[in-house]
Structures are given as C-alpha cells and as structure tokens.
Automatic annotation (TrEMBL), chains A, B:
This is aromatic-amino-acid transaminase. GO terms for biological process: aromatic amino acid family catabolic process; lysine biosynthetic process via aminoadipic acid; tyrosine biosynthetic process. It is found in: Cytoplasm. Gene3D superfamilies: Type I PLP-dependent aspartate aminotransferase-like (Major domain). Pfam families: Aminotran_1_2. It catalyses: an aromatic L-alpha-amino acid + 2-oxoglutarate = an aromatic oxo-acid + L-glutamate. It comes from Saccharomycodes ludwigii. Its cofactor is pyridoxal 5'-phosphate. Its main location: cytoplasm. Its EC number is 2.6.1.57. InterPro entries: Aminotransferase_I/II_large, Class-I_PLP-dep_aminotransf, PyrdxlP-dep_Trfase, PyrdxlP-dep_Trfase_major. GO terms for molecular function: 2-aminoadipate transaminase activity; aromatic-amino-acid transaminase activity; pyridoxal phosphate binding.
Length: 504, 504
C-alpha cells in the first residue's frame, strides 16, 4: 500500500518563514565533498586544528540488570566503553560519527547516524503508517523546538491555544513573541474536547483563528494529567475541522507508569514487560494518528538521558521540517557535535532493543518514585478533612499515570483567614501557603505560576472562558528531583505546612 | 581607581525584550542547592539516570612544539589525557565540571569554570579597564549570538547598519526578522568612518534611527578587510554621537597574520613571539575602547577550536547580558553540557598561557596558508593585464592581514561579451565566471551573494548610497578549507578559468 503525501500547510506560516530564502552559501556546500572540486568556497577550518585526538565514554550496558541507576564499576558485563576518534579512517564501528565531521560545519538537520537511529525509533514507537513523507530534525531540546515552532508559524498578534495551565516557559516564549495564548479548559485527564470544540465553533470571527494548539499530552506540566487516546482522536478531528497545527511537546512520554495502586493492592513483584508489551502499552501519540502532516512532535532526551545533552528532535512532515531547517541555519545551525556523537554512539551501541530496555528501566524507576510519593501524600496530608458546610475536601491528590509531577489541589475557602484578612481571594491563600512550605523546608510550586491567561483581540465570548472550581488552588510537586527518603521527608513537611497553615 | 558603571541602554530594547519577565520558576531555582530545603519544585531528573559514568579526551599539550596541527601519538610529552567523572566527589582537578552538573538544568549563563576562564582571557586580551560591570555570557556560537542581538534590540521595521558586503547569513537573519540592514561603504580597510558619519548626519529623520551597527572588524567576511584601530576609534565616537550599539562579530580575531610580504622579502625563519608581543600586536577591539557598555562583542570557538563545539560567548555590560540571559532561558537554555565541560577542561588544562600558545600556533598556520595563497594568486592570476583604454587592471588581489578569506576583484567591463551579450551588466559576468570556475574544478563564491541591499522607509538621501567602483565584481576564496598543495592547485585552476573566461 502506498501512503499519501502530507498536505501543504505553508499558508499557515509566519511572515518570517514565508519570506526566508535558503542561504545562497548552502547551495554550494554539497561541492565540499565533490572529489573533482577544490573547495575554496567556505570558511571551514581544517580538522587538523581541532584539539581533540579522540574522546571516549563509559556507559551502562543493556539490559541493565541491576536497574538503570546502578553504579558502574567498569566491569565488562555492566559497562560499555567506546572511543570516538577524530578521523573517519580510525572509526571502529559503522555508525560512529568521527570528530572531524561532527565538529565541522554542516548537517544542520543532524548527523546522519543519529537521524537514522531516531527515524527507526520513531517507527518502532509511533508506526508512522499514515503518510509517506515524514522525517526527523535534530533540535537543541524542546525549549528550542517550541521557540522554532513559534517562529515558523506565528506573527505578532496571532492566536494559539494551550491547556489552561501549561509550562510557564512555553507560555512566556509565546507571549514575548507577541503571540496570544488562549486557554482551553482541562480536567485531571487533560484538555476537554467538548470545551475545545465549543470554543472553536464559537470563535470570535473578528479575531485571527488559532494557528497552533500547544499541548503536553503525557504527564502534563504542571498538572500531571495525561490525555486519553480517545480524547486525542477527538482533538485531532477538531484540528482538521478548524485547520490548526498540533504541537505535541512530549518530554515525559516514556515516563508512563500506569495507574497507581495503593500499597494494599499493589503487586510486590513487578514483572518486566517484553519490548512488545511495553510499546503496545504506550499512549497513542498525536503524530501516530496524523494522516495529513499537521502534527509536529517535539521529542527530547532531557528527561530520558540528561537535560544538558541539549538534544531533541522534531517528528513531522518533510514540508514543514524543511522550513524549520532554514530557520535553524540562521539560529542554532545544529546541536553541538560532542552531544551528537556521544548520544548517537550510546544509542547505536545499545541498539533499538537496548534503548527500549533503558526506557523500561527508567519507567520502573519513576513508577517506584510515583508510588512512594502518592503513598506518602496519602499518609501525611489531611486528605480526610472536609468542609463542615460544603462537604468539599480540603485537599485532593489525583495520582498521575505519567510524568514527573504530582499536584495537590486545595480548597482555599477553608483557610481560616479566607473570609477576613484574605478578602475571599484564593491567590492570597496560594501566596501564604507558598511561604509556609519554604519556611517548613520543602519546595512545591504554586499553580498560579502556570496559568494560561491570554485573551484574543477582540475577546472571545464569555462562555469560552475557563471555569475552574471556585476557590480551588493547586501546587505542583515532583518526585523526580530527589531520592526516595528525602522525598518522603519533604512530603511529611508538606503535611506539617498544610496543617499549620489551615489551623488543623 | 574605581571604574564607572555602564550606562543603561534599555530604551533601545525591542518590544519583546522590554516585555519579557524572568520565568517565575527561576526565582526559586537557587533553593535547589539549599541544604535546608527539600526541593520538590522542578522537573530535574536525578543524575543517577544519566547514562555516562565518565567521559575522557586526548588533546595536544602546550606549547605545541611541533605545531598545533601535528598528529598526536599519545606520548606523554605531546598529549594530555583527561577524565571527566559524573560526580563532583570524583573530580580530580579543581576547575573540572562534573557531568552531574553540566548535564543537568541550570547555569544558563554558562558553567562557572568556563566563565571564569573566559573572563580572565577577556582581561588578558581586551584589558576591560574602562567600565566596571562587564561580564561574559556563553552562547551556542556567533550565529546564535547575533540572532539573540536582533531579538534583544530590534522590532520589525527597525533599521540597523552593516558593512556594504557582509556575511550573508547574518544579513538574512536580520531580514527575516523584518529588520532593514542599511549598507555602509567600505574599502579594503573596512568601514569608511567619514561615509558612516555622512550617512548618520544626513539620516532621513522620518526613518527610525539605526539601533545597531553590525560589523566584522577583523578578516571581514566576505571582503577579508580589517579595520584599523584609528577607524575603530572614530566609529566608536559616532556610536556615541548617534546613540547606537556596536555589535562586533569577531570569529576571526585571532587569525591576525599581519602584513603580507612577497617571497623575496619574507623572512624564512619565523620567530615565535612572546605572549606579551602577541597580545600587544593584536588589533584593538571595539569592546576595549568602550567606556559606556554600548559594545557587544561576539566571540566564538568555531574558528579557534572547532565549529561543531557550538560554543561562543558575548562580552558586554551586565545590564545588557542579563536581558540576553532572560531570552536564552526561553530559547537555548544553555550550550550543551558535553561541550562546556570538554572545552572548559581543555582550556583549563592548557591554562591562559597554554591557550595563548595555541592561538600563536594557529596564527602561524594561517600565516603560512595566507602567504601560500597570495603567492599562488600572484603567480597564476593575470595580475598584469590592464584594459587598453582605461588602463584599469583586470584583476586585483589585496592580501588580507587577517582572517580566512582572500578576494579577487575583477573589472567586469573587460569581459569579451560585456558590451554585447551581457548588456554591460556586471552581474552577468559574475554568473558566467562562477559557472566557469566550477567547470574548471574549483569553488570560489560570488561577492554578490554578500551584498547588503537594504533601504529604509522612507529611503535615505541618494548621497548615502554605496558607490562601488563601476563594473567591479569580486569573488571570495578561502585558504582555510584545504591543505596547501590542494589550495595551490585550486588557485592554478582559478587562473585557468579567468584566462579562459576573459579570452586571454
């Protein structure tokens, strides 16, 4: 069966993207490797003058029998050691990227060996069987990838959509580029498709139609929510109906721990899944549903290998990625060569199967962390306290099924000063409790920091506005950043802070 | 003597920079290292899960007695070998950046050990004795650094200034952001201050005043010209008078080979300069003249260590750099951790003196390359042919004193088809000769690719327009990209192409 080609969405591009031409210098760079041409064309320094004869590294070895975080003692059975030489001629294994290439100019899309691995990985995980001309493009991580999306699609004054609470840096990036971010109502399962549909069907026709939906479907930041496959399908249909691009920002995609079970019902022996079970158990991505090339998927090694790799990739149609490539030639050029060769070597040494072992191991670590966090939250937080009049719980913890974050929802109206000193302003409770937690020696982050507060010009109808539970505030915590014992202690302090602040 | 503080130039900022607030998440990141706080605030993965136990590298060892390009055979006297461990506790030498830190989030300004080296280096080279609050900020190279300058200062419709021929990617970056680049006349010694003054004094007052001058003072791309210290001083005074920021893009700064001497007068034994002689012999930078903080200097390792390091830095006032930092938190975050730790380790192992040895060695290599190129150009190009009527030379080669590029200037009117088939259009000669050189197996790049062609709205007075020699075209070649013997062969082919094309 031959697959259809992606559609042309270039009419959605920003003025910048529409006006940009590829650098004329790039039209002759292919002659650099032409044996018949002596290349006096570009300022490429000779690799003789790169001051690294070789670099090497030691990494853990699949299938990581003692867990992915186990210390390595250099023994052969636990570790792989590899050397990346300067010259191509000294390369020991096919697929290695010599320093003379990755430390030179060129290959703005990414080094071929890295891209090859990522293409295969993308096929393994997302199938990519709906249109033919998809590809991957290396980025410096999802912060940079999102910044590029804004540059490619948005002019000042444009509108985009995002979850009603979303990653503050992503929102700020849009705002500072003069792009308005309109909030879409969400619950603990993410964007509510019917609300999205209502907003779009009733969009103020004098305001520019939204060009993009920015979403973090898995382990959403900050709410910890995850979109179901069904909701994704509905949202994708809305993208077609209302003609916008979906940007799925998926740094936490492989931290899918599944449903939380309380200690009583939880199985004490976790069975390691087969690769097939693991892959089949993952949430369906937007990009895997996409038969038109209107989804851009931002993938990143930040949460899976390390943030400082500053390496990620975009999956999408070649038509769109070419425009990103032209932008990158004038902004980042390419991710750093050391990062590309080291990450590529690590992944290619592991192989696709070894990388799945790593991801399975990582998920295991985060499952233990998530379970420990939720156990401790249920133990230390006053989850059984309810308001005497309304019967509303003081604090709710919905265990996340994915990601790094848990959220504690608080009914601000139960604060003793709510009706008096705080003038019924939930924000004042948020501020007071934030100060309290720091005083008690733990840090969780106010949900207010993540509010999507944009409004279009002219404004949308009132009914489109997010209606949160009145007086509800929330705080974002993470089980990622500290070891288990410290986390338990931190959550205990959180409980103390909550009791003190609410006079229990 | 206490130095004055830099001035506040924030009124020149773009709307974007003016409206940007630091991310609220960054207001609590300092608590990450507070021993009294259990940090459940941010999604920072544990470094246990970074799959690199250590990385290591082999670099040449100062003072590089056999030249900086000599192959290393791993012998102790020629090489240094270093290991960068994951954990801080395993660090062997002060100043090393452990992987657990450089592969984590944070330090958007750059890793402290790298910044410390760069600050000291900046003092050694540029003195920085005119104002107190200067600093350095790590970048992903000068392409990214310049992109950030545009974002920090320019709105769509703003005007900036640049050399009449300049690096095409830098020009395109401005154009695609909707920024107009007005050309400043230049000769083989760079920007002509009197012309710049005339343009600014007669600036069409209805057009926004230029906010920036973008200049490549040393070994300019594409013309190979270098600005004298005197001209820099004059231009800096004009920046004060007309209140604009100077951005000096200096990737070629350390390739200052000095005046070309013909083989007859050239000394066969080159004396290696002392560090003091070397530093004192360097051109004065704009940043070294700056007593107000209105100069931003873009420095890069691309030409000095390797382009793929994707690492550079900006020197400027803290006031300006803080605004860059806030931008970078939403775009690049920070240069890749592997690059920062490896480059920092290399430099700190060499020390400031060792790095000067490297730079002296690099200059030597480029001096030999430049001399060989100019010798060959004088030998193989028809430099003695003159027009019978006008007595204008057909081809002129002005030996560069710095950088990677040579330029051959051609009198297009001497082309046999100039008055007939080509309709007296020098561009047609340029195109024909470009095709001819490729046909003859060598690549040099048309000067037309680098033209600064911007015009303000409303336009500037006619007298401000660049007047080039009529019918002059030029081609940019480099002696950087190929070994000496290949370069000589390439230049020979260039001579053949020129003779054939011009019917000699």
């Amino acid at each position: 069966m031959t697959l259809p080609e992606s559609k042309d969405f270039s009419y959605l591009f920003s003025d910048e993207a529409k006006s940009r031409k590829p650098s004329p210098l790039k039209t002759c760079i292919h002659l650099f490797n032409d044996p018949n041409i002596i290349f006096l064309g570009g300022g490429l320094p000779l690799s003789n003058y790169f001051p690294w004869k070789e670099i090497s590294a030691i990494s853990p070895k699949p299938p990581f029998p003692n867990g992915i975080g186990a210390p390595i003692k250099n023994a052969d059975e636990e570790a792989i050691e590899y050397i990346i030489p300067k010259a191509k001629a000294e390369i020991r294994e096919e697929g290695d990227i010599p320093l003379e290439r990755c430390l030179q100019y060129g290959f703005s899309q990414g080094q071929p060996e890295l891209l090859k691995f990522l293409r295969k990985h993308t096929e393994v995980i997302h199938k990519m069987d709906k249109y033919s001309d998809w590809d991957v493009l290396a980025t410096i991580g999802n912060t940079g990838g999102w910044e590029s999306c804004l540059r490619v699609f948005c002019n000042r004054g444009d509108n985009i959509l995002a979850e009603a609470h979303s990653f503050s840096s992503s929102l700020s990036a849009a705002l500072s580029q003069g792009v308005n971010v309109f909030p879409i109502p969400m619950d603990e399962f993410g964007i509510i498709p019917s609300k999205l549909e209502f907003i779009l069907d009733n969009w103020n026709e004098k305001a520019p139609k939204p060009k993009l939906l920015y979403t973090i479907p898995t382990g959403q930041n900050p709410t910890g929510s995850s979109l179901s496959d069904e909701r994704k399908f509905e949202i994708y249909q809305l993208a077609k109906k209302h003609d916008f691009i979906i940007v799925e920002d998926e740094p936490y995609y492989f931290l899918q721990m599944g449903k939380y079970e309380s200690p009583e019902t939880r199985s004490s022996v976790e069975k390691k899944p087969t690769h097939e079970e693991f892959v089949n158990g993952l949430a369906k991505s937007f990009v895997s549903l996409d038969d038109e090339g209107r989804v851009l998927r931002l993938d990143s090694f930040s949460k899976v290998l390390a943030p400082g790799t500053r390496l990620g990739w975009i999956v999408g149609s070649k038509k769109l990625l070419t425009t990103f490539l032209y932008l990158h030639e004038m902004t980042i050029q390419a991710p750093a060569g050391f990062t590309q060769t080291l990450v590529s070597k690590t992944l290619n040494s592991w192989g696709q199967d070894g990388y799945l072992d790593w991801l399975i191991g990582l998920r295991h670590e985060y499952t233990v962390k998530r379970d420990t966090a939720i156990d401790a939250l249920r133990q230390h937080l006053p989850v059984d306290i309810r308001d005497k009049t309304t019967n509303e719980p003081l604090v709710v913890v919905n265990p996340p099924v994915a990601g790094m974050f848990f959220v504690i929802n608080i009914d601000a109206s139960q604060h003793p000063k709510f009706n008096t000193e705080f003038n019924k302003d939930p924000k004042k409770v948020e501020k007071a409790f934030y100060e309290k937690v720091i005083q008690k020696g733990v840090l969780v982050v106010p949900g207010g920091w993540f509010e999507t507060t944009g409004e279009t010009v002219p404004p949308q109808p009132k009914e489109s506005k997010v209606v949160l539970k009145p007086n509800e505030i929330f705080f974002r915590g993470t089980y990622a950043a500290v070891p288990l014992d410290k986390m338990k202690e931190g959550i205990k302090r959180l409980g103390v802070a909550l009791r003190e602040e609410f006079g229990l």
